[in-house]
Amino acid sequence: MHQENLSMKMSRKMPLNALRVFEAAARLGSFTKAGDELRMTQTAVSYQIKLLEDHVGEPLFFRRTRQVSLTEAGERLAPKVAQGFSILEEAIAALRSDAGQLLHIDSTATFAQQWLTRYLGGFQLKHPNIAVRLSTSPVVNDFASTQADVAIRWGTGHWPGLKMHRIMRMDFSPMLSPKLAATVGGIHEPADLLKLPIISAADPWWKQWFAAAGIDDPGLSRFPANELGTQSFDAGMALASQGVAIVNPKHFQEEAESGRLFQPFELTCHDGRDYWLVYPESRRNIPKIRDFRDWLLEELAPFYE
């Protein structure tokens, strides 16, 4: 009975509001940003953090001018608090009606255009109560400056604090329109590509692919060093017979099947970067995230290798 009473006292004393403030400040690395998110003044945030520090008996943050960072104790506490709030959110979500759920997906532009928008309807047929908001961004999504639930990233898969699933291998190879190839009598060997305009010639993929094809000095500097930003734009120029693009052939299978683009050589290269589905480790059990993850991994299983 004594132990039960003690537990009830501890429960009543637990500063839950201070823990919520601590979670936001630790995630955002700023008392000011935490206050903005929680609609609190910086003074109120500082008070709640001090309350929690008094409760645990040691500092949780180093305070510096315009910057705060976690102490060793704070580093130990932060992931546990984030996980605790995630479990609470999951429990509440499970009790609510599924109607009106919104899943915000942030993606690279090419993956969104060439894959997600073409197949996302399958996810919504399977989960009609989850609405989808799709945004694209050329920068790495850090989940602190966006409301996205999940992100599609291109890279090596080294992002601490995030749960990661490799969803598509990023091979690359030249592709062009049959109409453009016909202007030089067809493409019979890799050197024939250099008779045509090379799109985004400064892209390191070109040098890597030509080296693998046995051409160490393709003279790419004579072509405009355009930077179009996404494979979709490069492929758009190739579809218009404006040049040869170097892209991931898996993204443009429909264009190849329809005869609008073709891959003249089976040779593909890989630079160690692939497509990944990522989301905060602390949110891995949120139902809508779990549903999207399971659907995406099943749909993209053929693209793993």
From TrEMBL:
<protein>
    <submittedName>
        <fullName>LysR family transcriptional regulator</fullName>
    </submittedName>
</protein>
<feature type="domain" description="HTH lysR-type">
    <location>
        <begin position="14"/>
        <end position="71"/>
    </location>
</feature>
<keyword id="KW-0238">DNA-binding</keyword>
<dbReference type="InterPro" id="IPR005119">
    <property type="entry name" value="LysR_subst-bd"/>
</dbReference>
<dbReference type="Pfam" id="PF00126">
    <property type="entry name" value="HTH_1"/>
</dbReference>
<comment type="similarity">
    <text>Belongs to the LysR transcriptional regulatory family.</text>
</comment>
<dbReference type="Pfam" id="PF03466">
    <property type="entry name" value="LysR_substrate"/>
</dbReference>
<dbReference type="InterPro" id="IPR036390">
    <property type="entry name" value="WH_DNA-bd_sf"/>
</dbReference>
<keyword id="KW-0805">Transcription regulation</keyword>
<keyword id="KW-0804">Transcription</keyword>
<dbReference type="InterPro" id="IPR000847">
    <property type="entry name" value="LysR_HTH_N"/>
</dbReference>
<dbReference type="InterPro" id="IPR058163">
    <property type="entry name" value="LysR-type_TF_proteobact-type"/>
</dbReference>
<dbReference type="GO" id="GO:0043565">
    <property type="term" value="F:sequence-specific DNA binding"/>
</dbReference>
<dbReference type="InterPro" id="IPR036388">
    <property type="entry name" value="WH-like_DNA-bd_sf"/>
</dbReference>
<dbReference type="GO" id="GO:0006351">
    <property type="term" value="P:DNA-templated transcription"/>
</dbReference>
<dbReference type="GO" id="GO:0003700">
    <property type="term" value="F:DNA-binding transcription factor activity"/>
</dbReference>
